Amino acid sequence: MAYVIAEPCIGTKDSACVDACPVDCIHPKKDDPRFEAAELLYIDPVECIDCGACVPVCPVSAIFALDDLPEKWADFTQKNAAFFGR
Ligand code: SF4
Q1: What separation in Å is there between the alpha carbon of 45 and the centre of ligand 1?
Q2: What is the pTM of this model?
């Protein structure tokens, strides 16, 4: 079970989570050519180790454990995975 980045990230893409993640599974980073075009940042569901380190650093509270993801944002689970071709 991975963590998921949801709707509040859209238009924010703060990247504090990228720096907090110990396994470097949040993309695209600011120096990635895909960053500008990306709607939001995404968590790789295979690489995520469920540590929760990204949650408190997000300024817009966009990151949720899968079990805590609000139902209205359920489709973000697939959006996160799809960025990595999962
Ligand atoms: Fe990275 Fe941990 Fe957040 Fe998963 S829960 S994206 S491993 S910081």
Answers
A1: 9
A2: 0.97
